[in-house]
Amino acid sequence: MAHGFRLTGALLAGVLALLAGAARAGSVTAESIFDRQATRQQARSQVPKGATITRTVCEDLEVGMDNTRYRCTVFYTTAPAKPVPATTAPATSQP
Fold it and tell me: Helix or strand or coil: residue 33?
């Protein structure tokens, strides 16, 4: 029974380590009445600095009376934040 507990604990620790280092995904959507290219650029400009764009999807939405609205969604990933090393303060002696 104790052997199974150690295996489960090791498995859980491995999963937690993977999750801690996983990249985060997100998306930004923009809409416009002007054109698809301007809408795509507007969405791209809202992606967080340092993120990697993984995919862009644009749609043309007919809104009636020969009018088109454009919607673009930009998908991105961000790298996990690097851990800050722990620093230890020197021990102070109090008289």
Answer: coil
